[in-house]
UniProtKB/TrEMBL annotation:
Protein name, UniProt field: Putative nickel insertion protein
Family: Belongs to the LarC family.
Listed InterPro entries: Ni_insertion
Matches recorded under HAMAP family: LarC (MF_01074)
Recorded GO MF terms: lyase activity; nickel cation binding
N-terminal signal peptide: none
Pfam family, one: Ni_insertion
Length: 392
């Protein structure tokens, strides 16, 4: 599986995205041809290597005649749909990015998607950024995109509607639900175009996944910031095709003043409510008191439900939480026939393509009770039967 990781240490913008893509080997001439097909006149891309805080990066610039156009979403979409050069995948991605921006603008201005008109993002250079990025991402040909938490910067900027604080209203709307990174840089690090690109294409947000790195692209922003390199790093690599990846949340709390019965009851309720896993660890707390660390793994949408149970059942005063990326083997339900009956379980596909079978406890327990045999014997019988079936 080919995977791309956007390391947004200094935020993300349209031109930084283009620079990172070109630095990863995407053909700028192909991007130029695709944008030319929109029918705008005299748009010219150029790329040059620049330095940002001593590090090299690719700066993609867009030259075009000055204009004062304020476009509606449907005007831009019509141009995209009419292109004889863009592929259907590229058109669809460009439309989705612009729709993301349009929906944010409509919410900010109390308008509708049909009526809202773009100011800065409706300009030719921004259109070129979005469509060019859609083309570049398509040509990059990755199967999955992961992004780091996104810093927005601080301070104030001047836009069509006057002076606003960073993040700008549309950027804040677009980044709802996306992890943000703290930043004290007094500059708009993440633009509406950059926010919309990553909000549209990222499959998950978190740390760099386990991968074998193949390419690294660095896209430079306009300014050479004094605080840090103004670069977007795009890391492209490969992961084992049998490994699946997703993001879960880890919730933890320390307990030292409740009984084991209460903790056991709480873990049962957490599992019943949909926790992926719950486990306890013996710890030493302040004043040398023995305690218990309760750890919960859950999907993002289950965080509030899990925390409510922990607060209610344990009386804890605080819960720590953070996102964690995980890799897991491809797996599917499987059953194996034994002399004592059918045993249900899971089949996992290993990195070399071979498989392993794990009998389910409950299925083995039922057989052990019915046949009055040790549970371990049922496990061993099921594994031998599976091994025999793979060798025959």
């Amino acid at each position: 599986m080919k995977i791309a990781y956007f390391d947004c240490a200094s935020g993300i913008s349209g031109d930084m995205t283009l620079g990172a893509l070109v630095d990863c080997g995407v053909d700028l001439a192909a991007i130029q041809a695709g944008v030319d097909s929109l029918g705008f006149t005299q748009i010219q891309f150029s790329a040059a290597e620049v330095k940002r805080k001593g590090f090299r990066g690719q700066k993609v610039s867009i030259d075009h005649p000055k204009e004062q156009a304020h476009r509606h979403l449907h005007h831009i979409v019509e141009k995209i749909d009419a292109s004889p050069v863009l592929t259907q995948t590229q058109k669809d991605l460009a439309r989705r990015i612009f729709t993301c921006i349009g929906e944010a603008e409509a919410r900010v201005h109390g308008s509708t998607l049909r009526k809202v008109h773009f100011h800065e993002v409706g300009a030719v250079d921004s259109i070129a950024d979005v469509v060019g990025s859609a083309i570049g991402l398509s040509l990059l040909g990755v199967d999955r995109i992961v992004c780091s938490p996104v810093p927005t910067g601080t301070g104030f900027i001047e836009i069509e509607h006057g002076r606003v604080s960073v993040p700008a209203p549309a950027v804040a709307e677009i980044l709802k639900g996306i992890p943000l990174a703290a930043s004290h840089v007094p500059f708009e690090l993440t633009t509406p175009t950059g926010a919309a690109i990553i909000a549209t294409v990222a499959d998950e947000f978190g740390p760099l996944p386990a991968m074998k790195i193949r390419q690294i692209g660095l896209g430079a922003g306009d300014r050479d910031l004094k605080e840090q390199p103004n670069l977007l790093r795009l890391i492209v690599g490969e992961v084992d095709e049998h490994l699946l990846s997703d993001q879960v949340w880890v919730l933890e709390t320390n307990l030292d003043d409740i009984s084991g019965e209460v903790i056991g009851h709480c873990t049962t309720k957490l599992f019943e409510a949909g926790a992926l896993d719950v486990y306890t660890t013996a710890i030493q707390m302040k004043k040398n008191r023995p305690g218990v660390l309760v750890t919960v793994l859950c999907q993002p949408e289950m965080i509030a439900k899990m925390e409510k149970i922990l607060f209610k059942e344990t009386g804890t005063l605080g819960i720590r939480r953070w996102p964690a990326s995980r890799h897991k083997l491809e797996r599917r339900p499987h059953s194996i026939q034994t002399e004592w009956g059918n045993v249900q379980g899971k089949l996992a596909v290993l990195s070399d393509g071979t498989t392993s079978f794990s009998p389910e406890f409950e299925s083995c327990r039922v057989i052990a009770m019915e046949k009055n045999v040790p549970l371990k014997d049922v496990y061993e019988l099921a594994l031998r039967a599976y091994q025999h079936s793979t060798n025959s």
